[in-house]
Amino acid sequence: MQDTQEHNVSEPANKLRQSLKQGYTPLIISAVVLSLGSLILGYTVGHRQGLTVVGYDADAKQLVDVVQKQKNNLDALNKNLNTAVQERDVAVENSNELYAGINKLKAEKTQLTGLAAIYREVLRERGGLSLSVQNLAIKPLPENAFEYQLDLLQVSPNHRRATGNIELRLISGAEVLIVPMENKGFNFEDYARLTGRWTMPKGFNPQFIEVRLSGPTTVIKRFSWQRGKAVENLASFASEIPQAEATVQ
Fold it and tell me: Which sequence ranges are marked TM in the entry (predicted)?
């Protein structure tokens, strides 16, 4: 009898436990699924956040490097620009000074030309000036070469041109050398400057240099030979300069 009662009591309890078990099982499974989902979601978000932070740091460093490089390039460009502006300003200033100097020289040349014209007219009114050697300059050059500069002058009352031939002689005792000239003739109205170069023979030391003008009148003028310091930076090679020719006086 007692066993029957116990059996009757335990049977409803078992049914209740089974009912509760069946009711809570989905909840337990849901809780487990939610827990696992939370863990997976947290790991995924954290992992992605870590990757994002690392990627951001790398991009930021690259951006800083690019900006710094551009800044350096900009500084270099600004420096070059400032240098170019300074050079331009200096060039402009120099060109202005050069332009002013040229204008000044032109004005002085115009003034001197005017004065020379006045003097020539005064000379013409007083009978003029016959053909003459106004000046002779000899410039020593390297390799035993020399350059001459000869100024001739004539002021004719009737504006007659001076024409004729010229000869330069180097004299040492009884020995005479003729200086070679590209153009031995002259033809001018008031003033002429003749220039040229020649090579002196080795061992020849002239005492005088003589200028001979032949034309309507003959003019002979002798200058003492004085040698100065040689001029450097030849405009042409000494091998291209003609050699003086020896003659007997």
Answer: 24-45
- pLDDT value at residue 220: 93
- With a CB cutoff of 8 Å and minimum separation 6, the contacts of 145 are 197, 198, 199, 200, 234, 238, 241
- pLDDT bucket at 165, cuts 50 / 70 / 90: very high
User: Which CATH code, of 3.90.226.10, 3.30.450.20, 2.60.40.10, 3.60.40.10, is assigned to 128-248?
Assistant: 2.60.40.10
CB 144 within 8 A of CB 197: no
Residue 241 CA to residue 199 CA, distance in Å, equals 6
Using alpha carbons only, give the angle 224, 162, 212 rounded to the nearest 5 degrees: 25
Q: How much is the average pLDDT of 210-231? A: 80
